[in-house]
Amino acid sequence: QVQLVESGGGLVQAGGSLRLSCAVSGRTLSTYTMGWFRQAPGKEREFVAGINWSGGSRNYVDSVKGRFTISRDNAKNTVYLQMNSLKSEDTAIYYCAADPAYARVVRTTPTFYNYWGQGTQVTVSS
Fold this sequence. Notes:
mainly beta
């Protein structure tokens, strides 16, 4: 059974940085597209960033471009989200997810992602 465990969330001041990690167990993630999503109170879950199996294709929501970077280490079965210049509007629960599609293009719709972590809270104080 595939399990995803996020870590690295916390409380940070606006302008600060956090690095989220997602450790995958149960199978190798080397052929999976991996994504980060977030959900703020009262809002729908939204795509934040994704990276395809090889790392050659990445996709970001416009609001985080230039501030967030997604990366992966297939040897460690881990995906990362480096978040810089954090803003109060980045406050949300962040979820790691796996899309089993062995594809070049990163999909942004949550329904394509079969496996999800439990989420980690990110709070940015202004």
